[in-house]
Design brief:
Distance between the termini: 46 Å
CATH superfamily: Aldolase class I
Largest sheet: 8 strands, parallel, barrel
CATH class: Alpha Beta
CATH architecture: Alpha-Beta Barrel
Order of helices and strands: EHEHHEHEHEHEHHEHEHH
Oligomer: single chain
Structural class: alpha/beta
Number of strands: 8
Bound molecules: SN-glycerol-3-phosphate
Strand content: 15-25%
Number of helices: 11
């Protein structure tokens, strides 16, 4: 079970990383744009924090994505996971990078057929977009379950990385439905700590602790 953080905002990642519970970070062009920084600077800052698995998205033709992926690997070594789109070109680049021993994450997965192709191309991770599937009126978690079930049945070692996660409940249900990794925004990660009864219970313990009579 791995927890990834899905943002390019370094300060927010730093706080999550400091918990010791985070295994990696996923980024995409939209998240990098929100951060308002050069992607390479973002990746460098993440590596300086000690993060060893960073999804870095590439775009363009198969040859361009393969080249950019190799360049990223040259710069960032084992911290690099090259994130590729679920397209014909993306899967061609995925095969080549996989042959070079470079980790890949095939993104924008919306059904099991796409996940089978990505696995056949040697993807390290596939990223079904749970929230965006839900937005379309069918169940993102069912897609996670069918991909994870098929991979298990066929002995495929590609890992299911549930993405587009908007609530702690979806984190739990993604793992329950067979995800190996869940990537989530920091707000969702912090939300996993919360329960009203924990807060209330702690308040009562704190109050009672001040009233304990000590014999010493
Ligand atoms: O990892 C993909 C994720 O960033 C997409 O999330 O909420 O934009 O659908 P969302």
């Amino acid at each position: 079970m791995k927890f990834f953080i899905d943002t390019a905002l370094i300060d927010e990642i730093k706080d999550c990383w400091a918990t010791g519970l985070i295994d990696g970070v996923t980024t995409n062009p939209t998240l990098i744009k929100k951060a308002g920084r050069d992607p390479l600077d973002v990746y460098k800052s993440l590596i300086d924090l000690g993060i060893g698995d960073i999804s870095m998205e590439v775009m363009g033709t198969a040859a361009e994505m393969e080249y950019d992926g190799m360049q990223l690997y040259t710069l960032f070594k084992e911290s690099t996971t090259v994130k590729l789109p679920m397209t014909k070109e993306g899967l061609q680049a995925c095969q080549r990078l996989n042959n070079l021993g470079i980790r890949t994450n095939v993104t924008l997965i919306f059904n099991a057929a796409q996940a089978l192709l990505a696995a056949k191309a040697g993807a390290t991770y596939v990223s079904p977009f749970v929230g965006r599937i839900d937005d379309q009126g069918y169940a993102g978690l069912e897609v996670v379950r069918s991909i994870a079930g098929l991979y298990k049945m066929k002995g495929i070692d590609t890992q299911v990385l549930a993405a587009s996660i908007r609530t702690p409940h979806r984190v739990v249900r993604s793992f329950y439905n067979g995800a190996d990794v869940v990537t989530m925004p920091p707000k969702v990660f912090w939300g996993m700590y919360d329960h009203i009864l924990t807060t209330d219970g702690l308040r009562i313990f704190d109050e009672d602790a001040t009233k304990i009579v000590s014999s010493s």
